[in-house]
What we know:
2 strands; 3% strand; single chain
Amino acid sequence: MEQKITKFEVAESQLITAIDLYFKGGDPVSVHTLVRASHEILDMLCKHKKLGRSVLHNGLVEVVRPELRKTVLGKINGARNFFKHADKDPEKIAVWNPDISEYFIWDATSLYRNLTGGKMPCEILVFSGIFRVKHSELWSEKSEIDNMIPLAKLELSNLNLSEIYKELKRKFKNGAPGNDQTISR
């Protein structure tokens, strides 16, 4: 039976699945492949709607010298391309760092937020909060939540992220009208 689906719905499904797999300790290749596919769609949708672009795109344009952008992009996209294609070097072995997927998930959640005006399914909301706590050093602007981050970091270090994710997801789904929440950056 055929289904109708929008590009946004595809990207949302891929992103939520990548987040679920990430927190459940699923296959890192699948997490990376899903989040990179979602990231690409969300970035292009934001570009089309003139809502800004990804951190990846903006960083390349604003920071990297023009003559080196292709080289840098090749390194950033190395694992993604390796996981998608076998037309060149079919016997090649890739070396990559699965930790990079977490940053692509974060960037994709920012693009998602831009497209929805801040409304997010609980999976994206929970990931965003946990990422903010784990990587509080990344933000130049501080908010009221930053006062709680040292204690939250201590708590996160003592707990299983998979269990935290499951519990927070349950609480958001049970405690709010509908599944969508709104948070500010």
